[in-house]
Amino acid sequence: MATSPTSVVPTPEDRTSTTTTTLSNPMEMMKPPHENSTYVAYPVHLQLALYPITLKFEDVVYKVKLEQKGTCCGGTARTKEKTILNGVTGKVFPGEILAMLGPSGSGKTTLLTALGGRLAGNLSGKISYNSRPFSGSMKRRTGFVTQEDVLYPHLTVTETLVFTAMLRLPKTLTQDEKVQHVERVIAELGLTRCQNSMIGGPLFRGISGGEKKRVSIGQEMLINPSLLLLDEPTSGLDSTTAQRIITTIKRLASGGRTVVTTIHQPSSRLYHMFDKLILLSEGSPIYYGPASTAMDYFSSIGFSTSITVNPADLLLDLANGIPPDSMHEYEQGENTEQERKSVRQKLITSYETNISTRLKAELCSQDASKHNHAKDGSIRNVKSEQWCTSWWHQFKVLLLRGVRERRFEAFNRLRIFQVISVAVLAGLLWWHTPTSHIEDRIAMLFFFSVFWGFYPLYNAVFTFPQERRMLIKERSSGMYRLSSYFLARTTGDLPLELALPTAFTFILYWMGGLKPDPATFVLSLLVVLYNVLVAQSLGLAIGAILMDVKQATTLASVTTLVFLIAGGYYIQQIPPFIVWLKFSGCQISGIK
């Protein structure tokens, strides 16, 4: 039986005294409330960085604009606003877990993203962290675990966490301290058994879904976050694995962290592990308060059930507008949409009358100055730096991570076989072409130029779109500069990108019977390599601008087709008004 949240969560007055003690002795915060619990022994620098955060949000409203096409011919598009969040209010203290419950599309993830400072657009309302707005220092103290586990498939669990630690932990920690910290986190999350196993992906098997989720949580635990936000951490997991994940989150909250999580359909055991609950229905809150008293609240306003059910199931039915004991009518289709709207409206009205007014009054009347005095001083004493590590350190770590990630890719071996086989086949077709066959020699040079103009371009187009999710995730956490990522990625790919055309040129040049002069060969090789770099840069630019594989390949096809036609091989006399196309492609320089 889970402990009642009201019996373990201190009152705001108790937290005030607890906070003062914690700040005077940071080691106390890391002590577990139960002697049998096991916690990560964070390095001293990270213990000092952890301080309690009281999260408050009031009347949070988020709207998006939807364009509707005109119904008549020539009609202009009309803009319509859709409300995603409508007046959501709440507060979370250190040591508490706030669960956001609601059906799909109710706005849970949107609210969580807003609380994490990652939501742009038409957002209104007040969100404060220790009575202060979101800032860069708060961003570094916030851990955000997305619903999808965005991880590199070819890295092991240890490598994934070590590279994260190297990028996110401050430079005041040595490399050995960071590695030791990773080992402690692995032990805390129960990942020791699979620490040397690859993450895995769609094409090959790796660790389980629950282990991937714990790796994602571990990436945020490394920074010892004061505020931890999780988006449906139990989605797609079995009940036992979900229980293990929530137990881990509960232990993290007991260490003095403020935890907010969305949850879709928890079991009864999981539900009773949450301290507070927000129930959303189509973006509007219909309950906020202790999770243990939610059933009593809905019974008091006339929504009680005569049977024993999972509280989460009953709450989700209410959020969908289905009153208790009417599930049979809903299955038979007797419960109409109008009736469900009526139930939801009644719940919203009851919330505004019984909860919203009282909650807003508490937020306004609470004297937060004493509660946050010591913490505000801590914030001011922290040097506001945008990055935890230097540019050169980020570049080295990202370069090493990229090499490790792609070291097992069979695609690279396939590319090597592809290039070598094409070079040998072309060498056989143009075997020792005599100088009198000028057309054949020009065709061979044109093949040189076209192949190494198109091949690297299409390979480079996929680079950034394929890593888009990872880039968004890590950049949102402030892990590294965009310039360090770009140069590390291109530098890591450069050896293979230059080695393949070098081997291709060496094979075809001598098999084709071109001028047997070392200087001429070196000059030809430099021209080909220059052609490769230009084409690769163009492909990277197209992929980075569009960030969509389908659109990028379409634009690349059109671009290469124009370069091919206007390259000077098929058409020599181009009309003056369009002759500039002849010099826009990279093939013409390769031929010359």
From TrEMBL:
- GO MF terms held by the record: ABC-type transporter activity; ATP binding; ATP hydrolysis activity
Which superkingdom, per the lineage?
Answer: Eukaryota
Disordered, as annotated region:
1-24
Keyword line = ATP-binding, Membrane, Nucleotide-binding, Transmembrane, Transmembrane helix, Transport
Transmembrane ranges? 414-431, 443-465, 486-509, 521-546, 553-571
Recorded hits in SUPFAM superfamilies, A to Z, give: P-loop containing nucleoside triphosphate hydrolases
Q: Which Gene3D superfamilies match?
A: P-loop containing nucleotide triphosphate hydrolases (3.40.50.300)
Residue ranges of every copy of the ABC transporter domain listed in the record: 55-307
| Family that this chain belongs to | Belongs to the ABC transporter superfamily. ABCG family. Eye pigment precursor importer (TC 3.A.1.204) subfamily.
What is the protein's name according to its record?
ABC transporter domain-containing protein
Organism of provenance = Lactuca virosa
